[in-house]
Design a protein that fits this description.
about 80 residues; about 10% strand; elongated; binds zinc ion
Amino acid sequence: MEQKSIEPCPFCRDLNVLITRPVTGKIHKFNELPYQVMCTGCLGRGPMKDDVDEAIEVWNGINDIIEGYEYLSNSAMERSEWD
Ligand SMILES: [Zn+2]
């Protein structure tokens, strides 16, 4: 199965993002550790997921949420300039 592509960091736009398997404090075998996407630029992290594809999907989803938010705040600014 091919791995999904990871989008740049939604927080700082850094392209150096990698998949980590953080130690959660519970005792795990290595192959039971969750997956988490992490940015090496700002150390921003996505949520921990049991499935690598899911971790990437949620990470990529943060971009969509932020882009949507920027779009909304930009259009709000444009509107206020008309007043
Ligand atoms: Zn970052």
